[in-house]
Amino acid sequence: MKYELGIIIGSNIPETEHKAIEQEILGWLDKIKAQTDKKFDSIGRKKLAYAIKKQKHGFYIFLNFELEDASKLKELDTNLKHKNKILRYLIIKKDRVAKTKTVGTKATPIKPVPVKAKEAKPEAKADWDDLDKRLDAILDEKID
Fold first, then answer.
1. Which of 41, 96, 45 lies closest to 63 in space, CA to CA?
2. How far is the first Cα of the chain from the last one, in angstroms, to the nearest whole number?
3. Mean pLDDT to the nearest integer, 29-57
4. What sign has the CA pseudo-torsion 42, 45, 49, 51?
5. Can you tell me the distance from the alpha carbon of 51 to that of 124, in angstroms, rounded to the nearest whole number?
6. Which of 51, 49, 62 is CA-nearest to residue 12?
7. What is 2-94's CATH number, 3.30.70.60, 3.30.420.10, 3.30.70.270, 1.20.1250.20?
8. How do the domains of the chain map onto residue ranges?
9. What angle is formed at CA 31 by the lines to CA 25 and CA 32, rounded to 5 degrees?
10. CA atoms within 13 Å, Cβ hemisphere of 3
11. Averaged over 13-38, what is the pLDDT?
12. What are the start-end ranges of the H helices in the chain?
């Protein structure tokens, strides 16, 4: 089975330590005999939607891997759960996209559903900078 591992590393962890965390994760994957290309994809430091462990920013990294025995995911889950430098993680099973649907015993191709064209309505122009500032102000407010 193919899986994707998504991780958020705390912003209080210096970027120089990210490689050590990645190597530790690769070690865990090797231990459970997962095949990976050993290449992490990163989208960098991003603002979190809500504070996690009193942190408002985090570094996002992703890794694709294959694992034959799904029961070994529990071991990986336990290791990730106990790693304090990781704010959040998510393991996603990547399925093949369905190209046919089964009706009874006969498989038929999926037909796209036609989409009706919407009537054109005049859109109100939004000032994106103002909107971002207002959203940041709302998210930074303390909730009692």
1. 41
2. 45
3. 89
4. positive
5. 32
6. 51
7. 3.30.70.60
8. 2-94
9. 100
10. 21
11. 90
12. 18-31, 73-81, 128-140
